[in-house]
């Protein structure tokens, strides 16, 4: 059987295309997970800066938030301050557990935010 330059070129092109598809298929779960994490973080930030929801900016300076408050600690270096992410979530859920005299609302205990919103805010704050 004779192979022409054109038939060899088509076979090589097919191999390249299939290799690319296989490589993408192997990466897509990681990319999808990364995309989902970014979406969670974006949702968390949206709730945190929403003046009718989390309203973290009323008391805290954070990220690029406009008109931040200054009566609570700035939300910076959160991984250093809360090496255990569960403790950060607990603080958002009900800050009175650690400090009964806090002015921070117990967002979870009083159902001011949903569990998902608290999870999203926790993920977002952990990037600061």
List the helices and strands and how they pair.
Blueprint: H1 5-49, H2 78-81, H3 85-93, H4 115-125
Helix pairs in contact: 1-4, 3-4
Question: Can you walk through the features of this model?
Answer:
This protein starts with a helix and ends with a helix. The protein is elongated and about 85 Å long. The protein has a domain at 38-125: Cytochrome c-like domain (Cytochrome Bc1 Complex, Chain D, domain 2, Orthogonal Bundle). It is 54% helix and 0% strand. The protein has helices at residues 5-49, 78-81, 85-93, 115-125. The mean pLDDT is 83. It has 128 residues and is mainly alpha-helical. The protein has four helices and no strands. The longest helix has 45 residues, at 5-49.
Tell me the series of helices and strands, N- to C-terminal. Answer: HHHH
CATH superfamily annotation of the domain at 38-125: Cytochrome c-like domain
List how many beta strands DSSP finds.
Answer: 0
What proportion strand? under 5%
What is the overall silhouette?
elongated
Class based on secondary structure composition and strand pairing: mainly alpha
Sheet with most strands:
none
Q: Kindly identify the CATH topology of the domain at 38-125.
A: Cytochrome Bc1 Complex, Chain D, domain 2
Helix count equals 4
Distance between the termini: 65 Å
Low-confidence stretches: none
CATH architecture tag of the domain at 38-125:
Orthogonal Bundle
> What is the percent of helical residues?
40-55%
